[in-house]
Amino acid sequence: MREHESTVVIIGGGPAGLTAAYELCKAGRHSVVLERDASLGGLARTVNYKGFRFDIGGHRFFTKSRAVEETWREVLSGGEFLRRKRLSRIYYNKRFFHYPLRASSMLSSLGWWDAAAVLASYLRARLRPRRPEETFEQWVTNRFGRRLYEIFFKTYTEKVWGIPCDEITADWAAQRIKGLSLAVVLKDVLLRRHRANGAKGGGGDRDAIVRTLVDEFDYPRLGPGQMWERMAELCEATGLGRVRTGASVERVRWRGGRVESVEVADAGGRRETIEGEEFISSMPARELVAKLEPAAPPEVAEAAARLRYRDFLTVVLVVDRPDVFPDNWIYIHDPAVKLGRVQNFKNWSADMVPDASKSCLGLEYFCFEGDGLWQTADAELIELGKRELGRLGLVRAEEVEDGTVFRMPKAYPVYDSEHKGALAVLRRFFDSFENLQLVGRNGLHRYNNQDHSMMTAMLAARNVLGESHDLWAVNADPEYHEECAPADAAAARATQRHVPERVSARAVENEA
């Protein structure tokens, strides 16, 4: 079937795919979003279990992009978009450390002797940095010292990725924690004290903050899925956008550098062909290559096969206690347990929990799809979670009254020694297409935050409308990095082409 003569077919209903549809609807273009799962939001969805809502991970809403910020506030307004204070800590050696790191927390938990050892290790690293700087281990050690790397980075990072830190490339650290070092952390502590004592910062404070150090963020009242579900409603309300769930793209048919159609299967196995003028994909790049018809050239297929993904499961426990701990989340740097991080969803928003006398915790375990942990029965995973919480002293097993498990494949694109070369081959291949753009975390195989994923989608929509933007530059050039000086950001904005006039969410709703 052909949706409309100028339809844009969007593969994936996560933040990137829905944002692309939203931008196109505001510009008067027809689009159809095809989401394989029954719910929207991708990794940023919110799952409802007996009224208890939980994230797949925790999704802070913080950005340095004015366009992304405006979009969030167009879609959710008033009491639906909450400002939250952040509290997160690291659990290490039976002690808690505030994260972002605080000098007082480090001293009280490490003690003066260990703190002195951390400082000495940092000074050695600055005097004799490890070169060449090719791995995550080298990158972090050069900026924090060996001692702090072993305490606050090594164990948790290896839990997340399932490979040693000396096999993870420095690209990942440079992208995710760019601009962060022990010196920056200490400077941030001093600046916060200065502001707390009455000094006023300039207008560029938000631009100068490293994302990792952010201590406030926004959050939808009913979880991040509320944002994406509402965005889908607004798209459909215009009459220009269609959002289909349970629609799995099985084939992507192309010829002569153009995608012509996709073959879609619904939950019942029925298949149909959807044609379009332009195509935007947030599907994992490896899957997209595998679904091309005719098949991609052998060197492209071989490169795609080298891309790896880290998968993720959440053990959700309902606890018969109104308050468990004050944190939004806690990083578990204890090699004796498999648990990587624990979320306290009630502390993100009280409305995530239907009964004020209960708490809802999300225990995050990192794995590879099909491995032993992934295939463990739900009941065993729930018991594992109860045991590990008890071992950490956070919750007694008898306080847990219910639980469930949610698995999320391809949560994190892996930055191993193979990924850069493989991506270069894929980029050359996909850049040769006239009407196909890759967006989002998995589309670009880049560990983007949701605002970066949204920005790739916004720029893809503008490309459809006749502009020319390099989507691979998002979260790689000064405009989108974790740290961005105000002057650089202003210069980058000045070089961008005119952005089509925005239509408010209320106006879109009134047009329906």
Structural class: alpha/beta
Biggest sheet descriptor? 7 strands, mixed
Q: Catalogue the unreliable spans.
A: 200-212, 477-512
Helix content: 25-40%
Radius of gyration: 23 Å
Fraction in beta strands: 15-25%
Task: Report, as a whole number of angstroms, the end-to-end distance.
Answer: 25 Å
Lateral arrangement of strands in the main beta sheet = 7-6-16-17-18-15-19
Number of helices: 18
Counting DSSP E segments of at least 2 residues, the number of strands comes to 20
Overall 3D shape: globular
- The chain-level mean pLDDT equals 86
How does this model look, in words?
The chain is of the alpha/beta class. The chain is built from 18 helices and 20 strands. α4 packs antiparallel against α5 (146-161). The longest helix is centred in the N-terminal third of the chain and has 25 residues, at 103-127. The chain is globular, with a radius of gyration of 23 Å.
Features:
single chain, 512 residues, alpha/beta, seven-stranded mixed β-sheet, five-stranded parallel β-sheet, globular, disordered C terminus
